[in-house]
Amino acid sequence: MSESVERHRSAAPEGVRVAVLTISDTRTPETDTGGDTAQEILERAGHEVVARHIVKDEPSSIRTALVDLLSRKEVDAVITTGGTGISGRDTTYEVAERLLHKRLDGFGEIFRTLSYQEVGSAAILSRAIAGTVGSKFVACLPGSRNAVRLAAEKLLAPELSHVVFELRKHEKGR
């Protein structure tokens, strides 16, 4: 690992305040295994889940929930689960993509590479995306527990503090 990345990681906050937003027409708080998985892995990594919601896979509902969560001072990042596939009801990608100021294309690329190692060519069906909205980070994951586990363990838990550090650094004009 480069010296610069190590230096930034060591200066990053130990934990990030995260909102988990599940997008589903069928999930309930009792059946939201993707949201449960995200919360468990992120908290185990030292992050704090400060909000957790479920909304229907309707563009206006997703946008309203995302904008609300991103406007909260206590939220540094929003992680969504669900709605990133290719069915007609999957609209998370379209909503999030329009909100993002800067896309982190590597997130989706690496996620699909890791997914390919687990599920083979079905990985191309994922439209996982991440980026920034102002000084906040957004990552949109598929809804399956395995996909959330993969993204949370391999990408989000190790890098979330570094991402937020970079966003705060630029927000302060350094």
TrEMBL record:
The keyword Transport does not apply. Keywords: Molybdenum cofactor biosynthesis. One of its GO terms (cellular component) is cytosol. Residues 19-163 form the MoaB/Mog domain. It comes from the Bacteria. The keyword Iron does not apply. One of its GO terms (biological process) is Mo-molybdopterin cofactor biosynthetic process. CDD domains: MogA_MoaB (cd00886). Pathway: Cofactor biosynthesis; molybdopterin biosynthesis. Belongs to the MoaB/Mog family. May be involved in the biosynthesis of molybdopterin. This is Molybdenum cofactor biosynthesis protein B. The gene is mobB.
